[in-house]
Design brief:
The structure holds two protein chains of two kinds. By secondary structure, chain A is mainly alpha-helical. Chain A has helices at residues 2-17, 19-39, 58-68, 85-90, 104-110, 125-150, 171-203, 207-213, 217-247, 256-279, 283-300, 313-318, 323-337, 341-344, 346-366; strands at residues 47-53, 73-75, 96-100, 117-120. Chain A contains 15 helices and four strands. By secondary structure, chain B is an alpha/beta fold. The chains are: A mainly alpha, B alpha/beta.
Amino acid sequence: MNKVMVQANKEWCELRRDRFSLALAFLLPLFSLFLFGYGIRLESKNIPIVVRDMNNTLLSREYVDRLYATNLFKPAPLRAETATPSDAIKSGDAKMAITIPKDFTRQIYRGNSAQPEVLIDGTDISNTQIIFNSIKAANLYYLAMLKDERMPDAAVQWVKPHLRLLFNPGREETLFIVPGAFGVILWMFPALLGAVAASREKEQETIIRVYSANPHPLQFLLGKALVYFAISLAMALLIAVAGLLLFGIKPVGDPTPLLVATPLYIFVSVSFGLMLGTWANSQTTAVQATSTLGFFPCLLLSGFVYPISNIPFPLSLFSLIVPARYYIELTRDAFVRGCGWPAVWYVPLVLAAFAVVLIGISWLGLRRMQLKD
Amino acid sequence: MTTSVSTKSEVKQSTGAIITVERLIKRYKDGTEALKNLTFEVQPGELYGLVGPDGAGKTTALKILAGIMEPTSGKIAVLNSRPSQARRYIGYVPQGAALYPELSVDENLRYEAGMHGVAKKDFEQLRQTYLKDMGLLQFADRLAGQLSGGMKQKLALCCALVTQPKVIFLDEPTTGLDPIARRELWQALAVLGAQGVTAVVATPFLDEAERCHRVALIYDGAVHEIGTPSELKKALGLKRLEIAIKNDRKSIKELAGLSFEHSENIVDICPFGDHLEALCKDASRGREEIGIALSKANIDVVNINETPPNLENVFITRLKSLTKKNVRNVPFEGLRESHDAHLAGVPLKAANLTKRFGKFTAVDNVNLELHHGEIFGLLGANGAGKTTTIKMLCRLLTPSSGTVTLLGDSSNSRSREIRKKIGYMSQKFTLYDNLTVRENLEFYAGIYEIPFEVRQRQINWVVDACDLEEIKNSLVKNLPLGWKQRIAFGAAVMHDPEIIFLDEPTAGVDPLARRQLWRLIREFADRGAVILVTTHYLDEAEFCNRMAFMASSRIVAQGSPQELKAMPEGELFEIKSDNNQAAFQALSEALEHWRVSIFGSNLHVILDNSKTDLEHVNSILESAGIVVESTRPIEFSLEDAFIDVVQHQGKRKASRRSILRGDDHE
């Protein structure tokens, strides 16, 4: 234990003087939170559309107004050369074009289905989905309104209000993104700190000193991990406070799962960095490896951006060994759902298993405390 | 451990050895065999030197001895156990010190002590002792990254000693250190034996090996010869002749043509800046042969002296017989007409050159005049201003005042024309680690705009002349320091420049390779190029025709090697006694500390007046109960001269002529 403290004390002295690592510990996580919190929006606004109302009656105009009332669309400038709807989309002026047929009103009064023609720009997949849903929803809303106000006996009964969530702008999105961002940030930066600290010993060749002092590999690893663990806890507190102040995110329900899992998760993250750092020969390699092996899986396979259910088969297996996946589940529960232990009891257990495996691998690599051939 | 152990080198090994190495073999994963058959023993209290060329296996041997690498096979015991088990009692000073640059001197020490489990209460006292011994006490709070090279090495030594080791291994502790720092470090090593510490030092510097009790000559992964420095020199069985010649550029050029290959008597001859050195079996026959050859070549001989051979002579003679393969002399085909080496005019001239960085004056009023065909040495301690001067001379840096005239151009511009006529080898390698040797050379050939038709020819010349054939397709990063230096030299000169700047070209290069490098430098001088070399290593400054000593930003002395060696006041004596350590203790207490130094089992003492002072020294030793076995005057080396000029000249003139300590204000 004594040597663990000697190692930790040395790491602390080094860290205090290393501006890059300090930035990694405090400035960059905040910056990332801003980026994720403000920058990433899964919904879009101001999607340019083109409307051709061939009918031009009260009902058709009300229908168009309903579309704009979603706040998602804005009229695209209609230029001479983009006269037809398909031209407007091809030229990029509009993402969607809707043509209301001449017999729109007549068909409604007859009780038949009126069929506005909708063209959607399919190149932008997420936009397509949003537009598609919005049209469907606007349509429903319009029919409901029709029934309430003008034609109580209209034969359109399939109004289902459960899609309405999609019209909720802003708040729900932040609730989805920010707790996930906690998971990403607390994966990225503690790991980078650990990787830099471990690989620096090799780059400076001071690892030779460590080898000749011959501490137990665990003393060496835990001494290093201790300092970066403590620093990362401070980092976690910092971004939690920032999340509260900037986005109004706070835990709902029982906070104990969060309090138990966060230190564990940070320890796993630091261990992951140490593992890559003891393997790499230079800081550059260590940082690159941590970014590539840590950041991308964490961003893409953790359910942070894309739902885990959308990940195709072989990759979905890989997502099982992405610790962020479990922690993000837990933070979303802690900050949004509020179900507490019954929903996330297994997360701390999984994280503890990761910690044991990662430290174990680093230990194996260092077990002889000697130079490799 | 008592002090008497130190001189008992004649004791037959095998009894009570503290380190035993037998048929040690180390094969790396990639198949290279770093150690092929290493066998030696070290006695307690010895200061033991491992000497050998680059890639001989010194570093590998030390890593295995320190227990941080496993051998492939062979027997090895340190303190009667496997090195990896004895790590608690082993101190290791890795190459380049390997300190934590972000930690202060104190923090580095504390970490090292803590990791070795040194008790807190002991630590305070040990820290105090060693920092004081090494003169680092007032720098305890400074970050290790901000220390000078010499201080770093001393701190690394402190770090090893603070763990209270019984054995200490040092890997090239003086590479990159200036002469003063080198001396101080060796003074610290010389007294380790008295403190009960056995030390094994790997070094490429032969003059340092003279300070060891015993030396093992390692070549190609095997030990070839072991003995005390005097035993080794005796075993060589050759006489050395130093032939001083008239120092004009014409006769120096003629020297290069001299050959004694057919002589059975003369084993080796080496032309230095203003003298020749010959090793021969019979001195008088040697004098005769050389006299005839020199008069045939129309070279005026000033005098011929017989001097005892040094370890470098031993080393080079042995290595030459081991390598067999004669160093090839590949003629250089230039890109321009070769000048007559003694063309008139001053191709490189600096007048009142000064450079200030803020308040700090890095170079202060330097005046230099260099001629065609001349090798000029710029010598000085770390931070004396050598590199800044060179950078101004090749116009990488604009002087604060003063002018530099290059080939008649004093415009201070760095035009393409001028650039093509300059070759510059900088201190830090400008080679690309992830390119092969050949790719690096091709890159530089392109940079210097060597015409396509001759590019391959020039590159092949570098490969042949610098002996790079076997490694030309290896990545540069995997090569030892000495090889990198050779490649960097080749890259700097293959475009046949008229002015060549070499900033510490031989740092970390072993004697044999160094000789080869100097032969090449000489060749370029003979083609009429001007060559300016900086070096820390004063022994090799003998290769220069003229040189200047720089100290605290100024040039303090200028002249030929002979002239400079005549500068120190006083005389140098070698004293052999029955107890070297005790003699050192007694004398360094009575005399000013710089006058006494330990060289292996002898002492070197600088005296002002041989008649009166020698009596005084004898009486000091006598009253300490030490029996003096022999006392003989020896010549000052360039290093002695340098240290004298830089450190003591001013002081001594101020103080009165007595050598007693405390007479001058330190």
